[in-house]
Give the backbone structure.
Amino acid sequence: MTGILTALRPARYCRAAIVWMPICIVAGAFVLVARLWLTWVLTAYAVLFGVNLRQAWAHRERSLTNDLVLVA
């Protein structure tokens, strides 16, 4: 996802996102139905991923904030 936001040619990453996103969503839905407690993990991960995307959108992929989010 960050490749789409920061690459010089984001079209290179769109095809992979279009192919893999539905596969990951369907597989993730099956896992969430089987293990409902993972919704808490997903929520925490979504917040951290949102911070990561915001840093990528601002072209600060190498900032200390982004590194700390990746470690967390």
User: Anything to note?
Assistant: The longest helix spans residues 11-34.
